[in-house]
């Protein structure tokens, strides 16, 4: 056996230790399942075997569920709902055979048990869980657009009651040992090293080979029967919870509710069949595929730097220089010091630099108050950050991240000063948000070592870093920048130098589309709600207020001066900005007045005067159309970036759009959105939008050609 070790003790107890080879953690592989099936039959057929213990032969984790990479392979093969249901039915049948084979099974859970791992434990008659700080158990399938398809939606509610089971199933909430015991998910806790002994004790003293739900007169806990009044209340609450969180974009929560609702009113085995049917539909659907591929597998791949230039030795930053200790510079210093890097934090005066460091200390203080760190760790972290105003302190830095004011001349000045001190091999990164990298590199004596390293605010929270490759940036520099991003545990994307790079350019089309809707006579509340219903975290009017309307206006003016080609500007909302700033004197949140009012006591409301400033038409479009406008305009701009070579790898576009600018996760990203609809349907949708709302929606000839050829951005992506 390669995944399951079978040892029979003199006391008649079989010890089954799971140790899946070739994977860092135990996952449910076909080999493991096949070997488990053999073991179950051997145990059932051998009168000398009294019972069995299931445990992990790999410390730290029991079983972490399915390997998401295996699922992506299945997607790429084009798995359909029938095949997916069948896979779920087969695992369910195995677990059902285990629990009804007449022999008692005890799960000695010596580490985390998630998804299918926990479902296997739930099929055992007794569960003892390692009582340590790292262990959690749960059914996180919903987070990847799936449901627990190996009995989880049937056993958990029957074990702990529907109200207690729903948060675990619908939100994927993971619980620690004490809570698992309190909820009744496990029977006992023990130190990790003793769970096997405890399981053996149970098997020898008080074994039972019958599950509660297979006993006569079984009733679901917490109610007189499946249809008890409070149970239906729970479903109403569950429904509300589901739709409030997902706005109908995510099919998994309603499917889970259906499994629990239908399944708990029917015999157990029928419940399992219902679960497999819903599981198949979800696995074959687009949302699970998009979520898993972009946010789990490709995000992981990006972290492992799949697109890193070949043949460049791996590098590590030991000493980092940050120029500018403002909001962004301090954030960069913070996350870098957290990754163990020595940081020189330079500003125009020592006082300013120290202010930046004090901000970091304050954030750490908040974490301390919440019990997330210790004073000792804070002291170590802060000791790594040296505030200064003296360029000589930058000597020996491997990397510079420049984050001074967004002014070309100033950036040129600090670049020259830093380069006079740092080693000839050092990399220079600019965190500019709007200035083309190739232009900034002109101030450098080593433009090949110059690159854009664009962080997002707040740096501590935002996972994305956009690397911008200038005309002269070398492959080695790209590799070094990628290594640095990996070192600070963020997700990099690589884009070509272009005004607005990738993320700002695509994001601009979202906010501008929202402003344009005001000019179309659409009610402001409808605009904001449509964006939220589509899955954007914030509406375009609120986000424009945050960014500050006067700042957007000055960017437009800068672009005018640079003589940019109009088609890239996404400036269709400019009349709104000009009117808000110049005429109505409402330049944004920072000034207490923008599209919203910001009363002193906190909170915000849409400014009632908007309806007069931008008259609302009597007839309003369907919310669906507005959602399409937001989703499509950003997808179109991304396709244009792809066409122009600003992004080369669809993964970069998808990750950048979700992690950087809040494109809804259910789509899988801007290019996956097109792939999911199918390029043909996408261009048809855009042509309709162009007819109704303006030429900006007209697909380019290049995109039309791709659509006609039935091509996909992900060659392997399958139609939903
Ligand atoms: P900020 O105004 O908070 O910080 C700029 C810092 O640069 C200040 O502490 C200032 O004292 C310092 N500085 C000015 N002149 C200097 C000099 N001669 N030498 C050394 N330090 C000097 O600005 P913020 O928001 O941190 O932005 C910095 C850069 O990051 C800008 O290029 C901006 O476009 C870019 N960026 C900003 C984002 C944001 O959301 N705020 C997002 C991504 C990039």
UniProtKB/TrEMBL annotation:
Q: What Gene3D superfamilies does the record point to?
A: 1.10.1040.50, 2-enoyl-CoA Hydratase, Chain A, domain 1 (3.90.226.10), NAD(P)-binding Rossmann-like Domain (3.40.50.720)
Keyword entries, A-Z: Fatty acid metabolism, Lipid degradation, Lipid metabolism, Lyase, Multifunctional enzyme, NAD, Oxidoreductase
Pathway listed: Lipid metabolism; fatty acid beta-oxidation
Protein name (record): 3-hydroxyacyl-CoA dehydrogenase
Q: Which family does it belong to?
A: In the central section; belongs to the 3-hydroxyacyl-CoA dehydrogenase family.
Catalyses which reaction(s):
a (3S)-3-hydroxyacyl-CoA + NAD(+) = a 3-oxoacyl-CoA + NADH + H(+)
Q: What Gene Ontology molecular function terms does this protein carry?
A: enoyl-CoA hydratase activity; long-chain (3S)-3-hydroxyacyl-CoA dehydrogenase (NAD+) activity; NAD+ binding
Q: Report the InterPro entries cross-referenced here.
A: 3-OHacyl-CoA_DH_NAD-bd, 3HC_DH_C, 6-PGluconate_DH-like_C_sf, ClpP/crotonase-like_dom_sf, Enoyl-CoA_hydra/iso, FA_oxidation_alpha_subunit, NAD(P)-bd_dom_sf
Q: What's an example GO BP annotation here?
A: fatty acid beta-oxidation
> Record's superkingdom?
Bacteria
Which intervals hold domain 3-hydroxyacyl-CoA dehydrogenase C-terminal?
500-598
Which organism is this entry from? Stagnimonas aquatica
């Amino acid at each position: 056996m390669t995944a399951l070790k079978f040892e029979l003790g003199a006391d008649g107890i079989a010890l089954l230790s799971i140790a899946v080879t070739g994977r860092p953690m135990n996952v449910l592989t076909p080999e493991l399942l096949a070997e488990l099936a053999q073991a179950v039959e051997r145990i059932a057929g051998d009168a000398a075997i009294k019972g069995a213990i299931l445990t992990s032969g790999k410390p730290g984790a029991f079983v972490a569920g399915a390997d998401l990479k295996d699922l992506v392979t299945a997607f790429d093969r084009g798995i359909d709902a029938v095949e997916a249901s069948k896979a779920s039915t087969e695992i369910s049948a195995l677990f059902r055979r285990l629990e009804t084979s007449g022999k008692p099974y005890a799960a000695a859970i010596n580490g985390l048990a998630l998804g299918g791992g926990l479902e296997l434990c739930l099929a055992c008659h007794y569960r003892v869980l390692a009582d340590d700080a790292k262990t959690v158990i749960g059914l996180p399938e919903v987070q990847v657009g799936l449901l627990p398809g190996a009995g989880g939606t049937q056993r958990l509610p029957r074990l702990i009651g529907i109200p207690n089971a729903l948060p675990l199933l619908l939100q994927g909430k993971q619980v620690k040992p004490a809570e698992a015991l309190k909820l009744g998910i496990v029977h006992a806790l023990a130190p990790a090293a003793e769970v096997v002994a405890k399981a053996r004790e149970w098997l020898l003293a008080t074994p039972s080979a019958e599950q509660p739900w297979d006993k006569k007169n079984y009733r679901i806990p917490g109610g007189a029967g499946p249809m008890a009044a409070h149970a239906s209340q729970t479903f109403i609450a569950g429904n509300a919870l589901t739709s409030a969180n997902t706005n109908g974009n995510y099919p998994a929560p309603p499917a889970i509710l259906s499994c629990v609702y239908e399944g708990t009113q029917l015999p157990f085995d029928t419940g399992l069949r219902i679960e497999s049917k819903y599981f198949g539909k979800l696995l074959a659907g687009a949302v699970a595929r998009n979520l898993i591929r972009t946010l789990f597998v490709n995000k992981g791949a990006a972290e492992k730097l799949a697109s890193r230039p070949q043949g460049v030795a791996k590098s590590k930053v030991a000493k980092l220089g940050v120029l500018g200790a403002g909001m962004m510079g301090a954030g960069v210093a913070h996350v870098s010091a957290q990754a163990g890097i020595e940081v020189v934090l330079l500003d125009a005066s020592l006082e300013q630099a120290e202010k930046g460091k004090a901000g970091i200390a304050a954030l750490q203080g908040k974490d301390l108050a919440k019990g997330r760190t210790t004073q000792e760790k804070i002291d170590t972290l802060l000791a790594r950050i040296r505030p200064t105003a003296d360029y000589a302190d930058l000597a020996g830095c491997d990397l510079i991240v420049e984050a001074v004011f967004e002014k070309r001349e100033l950036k040129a000045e600090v670049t020259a000063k830093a380069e006079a001190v740092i080693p000839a091999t050092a990399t220079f990164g600019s965190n500019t948000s709007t200035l083309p990298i190739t232009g900034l590199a002109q101030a450098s004596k080593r433009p090949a070592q110059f690159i854009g390293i664009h962080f997002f605010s707040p740096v501590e929270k935002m996972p994305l870093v956009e690397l911008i490759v200038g005309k002269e940036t070398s492959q080695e520099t790209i590799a070094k920048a990628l290594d640095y991003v990996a070192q600070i545990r963020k997700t990099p994307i690589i884009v070509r130098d272009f005004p607005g790079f990738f993320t700002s350019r695509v994001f601009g089309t979202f906010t501008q589309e929202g402003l344009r809707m005001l000019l179309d006579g659409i009610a402001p509340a409808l605009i904001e709600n449509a964006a939220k219903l589509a899955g954007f975290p914030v509406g375009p009017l609120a986000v424009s207020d945050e960014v500050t309307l006067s700042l957007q206006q000055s960017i437009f003016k800068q672009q005018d001066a640079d003589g940019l080609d109009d088609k890239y500007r996404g400036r269709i909302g400019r009349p709104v900005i000009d009117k808000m700033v110049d005429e109505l004197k409402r330049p944004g949140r920072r000034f207490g007045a923008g599209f919203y009012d910001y009363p002193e006591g906190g909170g915000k409301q849409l400014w009632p005067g908007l309806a007069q400033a931008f008259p609302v038409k009597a007839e309003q479009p369907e919310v669906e159309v507005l959602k399409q406008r937001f989703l499509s305009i950003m997808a179109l701009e991304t396709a244009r970036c792809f066409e122009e070579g600003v992004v080369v790898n669809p993964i970069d576009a998808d990750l950048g759009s979700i992690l950087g600018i809040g494109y809804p996760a259910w789509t899988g990203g801007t290019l996956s959105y097109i792939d999911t609809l199918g390029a043909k349907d996408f261009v048809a949708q855009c042509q309709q939008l162009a007819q109704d709302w303006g030429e900006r929606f007209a697909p380019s000839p290049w995109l039309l050609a791709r659509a006609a050829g039935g091509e996909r951005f992900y060659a392997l992506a399958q139609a939903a």
